[in-house]
Amino acid sequence: MKTIGVLTSGGDAPGMNAAIRAVVRSVIYHEREIVGIMRGYLGLINGEIIHMHLGSVADIIHRGGTILHTARCDEFLYPEGRAKAVKQIKKAGIDGLIVIGGDGSYRGALDLAKLGIPTIGVPGTIDNDIACTDATIGLDTAVNTVVDAINKVRDTATSHERVFIIEVMGRNRGDIALLAGIAGGAESILIPEVPLNIKSVAEKIERGRKRGKLHSIIILAEGVGSAIDVGKEITALTNLETRYAILGHIQRGGTPTAYDRMLASRLGAEAVELLLKGESAKAVGIEANKIVRYDIEYVLKQKKPIDLELVNLAGILAI
Ligand code: F6P
Fold first, then answer.
1. How far does the centroid of ligand 1 lie from the alpha carbon of residue 239, in Å?
2. Separation of 219 CA from ligand 1 center, angstroms?
3. How far are the Cα atoms of 56, 75, 207, 298 from residue 63, in angstroms, in the given order?
4. pTM
5. Which of 103, 111, 127, 129 is catalytic?
6. How far is it, in rounded angstroms, from Cα 234 to Cα 223?
7. Domains in the chain, please, with CATH?
8. pLDDT digit string (tens) for 86-119?
C-alpha cells in the first residue's frame, strides 16, 4: 500500500478536520503518500484529488467543518457513478481509501470495498446514528453547543416566565436532545425513540406552575416533529404562551471539543493502521473508551439502541 486517500462525506461534523489531520500525519509517519479527495464521493467521481503533506493539515485541529469540503452525491448511488469513482481511484494510484462520514458514507465505502478498493470507515456525524461505536465524531461538540444555547434561553425564559421549545438536530435519533437535555436541566426531553405524549408534557408544565416554577424548557429532537407545532399544542392544552428556538446548523459548526479532537485523532490513526495491515470494509469506533473495529456490513445492519438508562435518568431528574 503506497498511496492512501481520505475524504469526508455527508453532513460535516466538528472534529472532521482533526480526523483528516490524524490520517495525514499517520500516513506520513509510515512513509507512505497521502492524497485528499475534495467534496466527498462527488469529488471522487470528478477526480478532484490533491496531494497532501504535513503542511496541509497544520492549524486545523481546532477548526470546525472540513478542509476537504463535503457533499451529498446522488450519482454515487448508481453503479455508473461508482464505476467512474473506481476509475479515478485507479488513475490517481490510490491503494486504499479512508471515508469519514455517517451511515450513507459507510454504504458508499462498503460499495467501493466490494469493487476491490480497500476502504475503512471513520464515524463522523453529529447524529450518533452509527452502530458499534459509543460516540461519533462531532456529537460531543454539538451537545455542548446545545447546552450553551439552553443556558442562554433559560435566562430569558426565567425573566419572562415562559415555556420554551428548543428544537435540535439528530435526524431520526434523539442522542443530541437526550444528552443536552440532561446536561442543560431541561424539564422535558422529546425524542423519536420514546412515543410522544404531549398531554403529559402539558401536565408536567402545569404541575411545575403549581409548585411556583414559572418557566419550562422543552428539548425537542427534530425527528419527533417541529417546535412550532409542539408549541401550538402546548398552548392549546395549557393556555400558556410559548416561544421556540430552532438551533439548526449552528450545531454543525464551531471549534471541536477536546473529546471530539481526541476521538478523531484516535480513530483517524487507527483507520490508517488497518489499511496498512491489509484490512478492508472495516469501520472503527469507540466502546468503553477502547478503539474497536467491525465489518462495515455488520455495522450497517445493526440498529443502535438509545441508552435507556439515560432516558430513565432524564425522567427522574425532570420530575
Ligand atoms: O446528519 C447531520 C444532519 O445535521 C442532521 O442532524 C440533519 O437532519 C441533517 O444533517 C441536515 O442536513 P442538511 O445539512 O443537508 O440540511
1. 33
2. 18
3. 13, 29, 44, 32
4. 0.98
5. 127
6. 18
7. 3-138+256-301 (3.40.50.450), 139-252 (3.40.50.460)
8. 999 999 999 999 999 999 999 999 999 999 999 9
* Rounded (10°) angle between helices 175-183 and 139-160: 50
**Which of 8, 74, 143, 171 has most ligand 1 atoms within 8 Å of CB, for mutation?**
171
Q: Among this protein's residues, is 260 annotated catalytic?
A: no
Mean pLDDT of 117-136: 98
Q: Is the CB of 138 within 6 Å of ligand 1?
A: no
pLDDT digits (tens, 9 = 90+) for 154-195: 999 999 999 999 999 999 999 999 999 999 999 999 999 999
